[in-house]
Amino acid sequence: MATLEPVRDGHSVTWTVERWSDVRGLEHGFGGRVGPVPADVVTLRQVHGTTVLDVRDVVDKPPGDGLVTGSAEHMVGVWTADCVPVLLVAPTARVAAAVHSGWRGSAAGVVEAAIALLESRWDVRSCEVAAALGPAIGGCCYEVGEDVRDALFVRAGGLAMRCFDERGGTLRLDLRRFLEGRLRELGVTDVEIVGPCTACRSDVLHSYRKEKSAGRQLSWIGFRE
To answer: Is the pTM of this model over 0.85?
Structure first.
């Protein structure tokens, strides 16, 4: 598990996975409050569910929380402001995915749905996938209720219990830790945690929990060749 330093360009901040720079033609980034993003990124109307689509099947902007691209024609992305942006790449198959995973999507199995689509449509095994979990609210700041703990326990049992902490009478969740563990259980061995807690760093990242605003940052991935 690693937290990588962001790339700064003036006032903009973008986090990237350094070793993914070796993947030919791959472009990706976890954006901040301000900064340039690719203009041709396809996104969905996010609903905290488990629908993950092949970008070639997208017409207009349907509901869903994950997109997969296997060609240089489309970049895919998700918008977040405390939920976890999950980027997946299978370098050999040249397939990439962007997934939006809040606690509801995590409990329902959105990352499982993404891995399943990679396998069924592109014949990509989970061990061939690398994952990066971008800036999201951390266990330091993410106060939740027992309903959240119960929902994640149903999904992952003991793993879920290890991702909660009780401090000062409040229950806190480290959702990125949960998703890292879940991805590893699914067979994804290359998992990185990238960037800080959104609530702690609302100077460079949008945080709905802290700000109660509609601001979002874009995370994106795809192949240019």
So the answer is: yes
